């Protein structure tokens, strides 16, 4: 095989990926088919085989791999179906709505591979290609920062209007989307959190459910976390603030890293905090510092980079940037934060996936949200399908 014939199911966000492939920005991939129930969306890809359903595309024999970019709940079922059809799979974030479903999807992949069928299974965590986060990972994971003490990430530049939430019948409901800002806007941030710092062991979160919008899911979150080594963290996000902030601050034994406005600054202590604080020096003294500043010309390969890596993994066995199995961790973090707010308690990780699945089912059953045809279209008639 010299090129991978890929199909894209879901032509909202999936249209972006399909166009990248058509433009030749994902070497190793050929767009062989698209699937979407909307005939007008399929018509935007003339010359490419179009199908009304994913099942028809999977059975067509025209594709070797599939990119799943449909609403969240369908990721699990379509992923399992595609894997069983012998296809390599790349799934948009989040890989599933809740941990129990994510585990089912991952288990299906493990089972099929154990039975002798090689299938590359990846997730669209494109922020892992960003040179800013790669530099932070180098400094944190490589030991330059020293023992982690505290992490604080404020991501409140996700502002959304009422029209955005009204733009789809599945948006901002427990039944349709399974969550709000944590499930839609922040999976990348949550993935980066665990990728850079590891998975916390305890979470205590306060969520505003419909705090700023007429929705039933969370649009405002403040979460305190604890790591196994004793470090603590604060994760703050919202879709109701503007202009908003995106600032990541990391404190370690050897200094502080701050990432904001396309600039990473590592202020290094010339003497470790602990050693200096125990020294017989003036009470207000502090270690001398030096400053490293990192900037980049762009934000890396992003979606095209993940697509190219997916093809390389299939064709040449290259390591995946974002194995789908790692997508379980960001789903678990989101679930733990929501469950903590629902139950008004600190939640320990690993999360009890069955408990969360039951609690979510209860929220769905109790929901009184009804979206009319008018609200589905959105007041301005805008199509936000390509937006998080």
Automatic annotation (TrEMBL):
Coiled coil residues, start to end: none
Domain of life, source organism: Bacteria
InterPro entries per UniProt: Gfo/Idh/MocA-like_OxRdtase_N, Gfo/Idh/MocA_Oxidoreductase, GFO_IDH_MocA-like_dom, NAD(P)-bd_dom_sf
Residue ranges occupied by any GFO/IDH/MocA-like oxidoreductase domain in the UniProt entry: 133-258
Gene Ontology MF, one: nucleotide binding
Pfam families with a match to the protein in the record: GFO_IDH_MocA, GFO_IDH_MocA_C3
Domain Gfo/Idh/MocA-like oxidoreductase N-terminal: 4-111
Name this polypeptide is given: Oxidoreductase
Organism: Nibricoccus aquaticus
């Amino acid at each position: 095989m010299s090129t991978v014939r890929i199909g894209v199911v879901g032509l909202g966000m999936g249209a972006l990926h399909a166009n990248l492939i058509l433009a030749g920005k994902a070497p190793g991939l050929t767009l062989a088919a698209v699937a979407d129930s909307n005939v007008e969306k399929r018509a935007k890809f003339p010359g490419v085989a179009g199908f009304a359903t994913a099942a028809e595309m999977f059975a067509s024999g025209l594709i070797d791999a599939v990119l799943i970019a449909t609403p969240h709940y369908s990721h699990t079922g379509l992923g399992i179906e595609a894997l069983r059809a012998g296809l390599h799979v790349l799934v948009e974030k989040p890989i599933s709505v809740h941990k129990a479903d994510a585990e089912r999807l991952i288990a299906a992949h493990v089972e099929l591979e154990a039975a002798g069928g090689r299938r590359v299974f990846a997730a669209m965590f494109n922020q892992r290609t960003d040179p800013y986060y790669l530099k932070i990972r180098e400094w944190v994971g490589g030991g330059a920062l020293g023992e982690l003490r505290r992490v604080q990430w404020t991501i409140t530049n996700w502002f959304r209007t009422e029209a955005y939430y009204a733009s789809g019948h599945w948006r901002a409901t427990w039944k349709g989307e399974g969550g709000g800002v944590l499930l839609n806007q922040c999976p990348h941030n949550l993935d980066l959190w665990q990728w850079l710092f590891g998975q916390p062991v305890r979470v205590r979160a306060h969520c505003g459910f419909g705090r700023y919008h007429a929705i039933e899911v969370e649009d405002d979150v403040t979460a305190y976390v604890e790591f196994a080594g004793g470090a603590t963290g604060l994760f703050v996000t919202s879709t109701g603030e503007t202009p908003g902030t995106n600032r990541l601050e990391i404190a370690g034994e050897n200094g502080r890293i701050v990432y904001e406005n396309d600039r990473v600054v590592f202020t290094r202590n010339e003497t470790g905090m602990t050693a200096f604080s125990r020294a017989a020096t003036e009470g207000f003294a502090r270690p001398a510092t030096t400053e490293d500043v990192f900037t980049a010309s762009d934000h890396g390969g992003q979606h095209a980079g993940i697509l190219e890596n997916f093809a390389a993994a299939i064709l040449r066995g290259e390591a995946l940037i974002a194995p789908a199995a790692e997508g379980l961790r960001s789903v678990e973090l989101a679930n733990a934060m929501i469950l903590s707010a629902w139950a008004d308690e600190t939640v320990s990780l690993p999360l009890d996936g069955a408990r969360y699945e039951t609690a979510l089912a209860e929220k769905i059953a109790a929901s009184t949200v009804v979206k009319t045809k008018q609200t589905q279209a959105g007041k301005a008639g805008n199509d936000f399908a390509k937006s998080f």
